[in-house]
Write a structure and sequence with these properties.
Number of helices: 3
CATH architecture: 2-Layer Sandwich
Number of domains: 1
Distance between the termini: 53 Å
Helix content: 40-55%
Shape: elongated
Order of helices and strands: HEHEHE
Length: about 80
């Protein structure tokens, strides 16, 4: 009985916490220039964004981390 109550309490707590989280706006990022000639750090940033080929488009939430990565390779990408 107590185990069931605790599981239900955890379920309600998780539901309340996730209902209050608002979704961040989505942005689309397109690689428009080649990564040839870029630094290793910039190449790794493109890979972590999910960009592997030219003209490839990926969609991410506009979190501060993603926006920072886009700022570091803004000469290689375009935000749609």
């Amino acid at each position: 009985m107590l185990k069931r109550f605790l599981l239900f309490a955890v379920y309600l707590l998780v539901k309340c916490l996730t209902d209050n989280i608002k979704e961040m706006p989505k942005i689309k990022i397109k690689q428009v220039k080649s990564k040839i000639g870029s630094t290793v750090r910039q190449k790794r940033t493109l890979e972590s964004l999910g960009l592997r080929k030219m003209q490839q488009v990926v969609e991410h939430e506009a979190s501060p981390e993603i926006l920072g990565m886009v700022a570091k390779v803004n000469h290689l990408v375009e935000v749609i």
